[in-house]
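lol forgot to send this yesterday, sorry. struct tokens for the thing we talked abt
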């Protein structure tokens, strides 16, 4: 989604675009809770991406092996 964001992020982007110098910037203030939630979000995203990849790989392998053979395998364990 970052590629859709057209906002200016750093002063170096503003000067060439507008042709005027930057007089001041407002620093981003992040709280401890925000950093923790951001890190937790990154961890869960990585976990769910790995789970999604594992499911995709499992279904790809199962589709190659065939439905009948897969169902026979599943019935052995259920």
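and heres what i got for the seq, position by position
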């Amino acid at each position: 989604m970052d590629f859709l964001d057209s906002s200016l992020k750093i002063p170096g982007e503003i000067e060439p675009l507008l042709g005027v110098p930057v007089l001041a910037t407002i620093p981003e203030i992040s709280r401890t809770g925000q950093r923790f939630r951001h890190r937790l979000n990154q961890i869960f995203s990585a976990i769910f991406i790995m789970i999604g990849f594992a499911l995709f790989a499992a279904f790809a392998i199962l589709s190659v092996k065939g439905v009948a053979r897969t169902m026979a395998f599943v019935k052995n364990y259920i």
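The chain is about 70% helix and 0% strand. anyway ping me if u want another try
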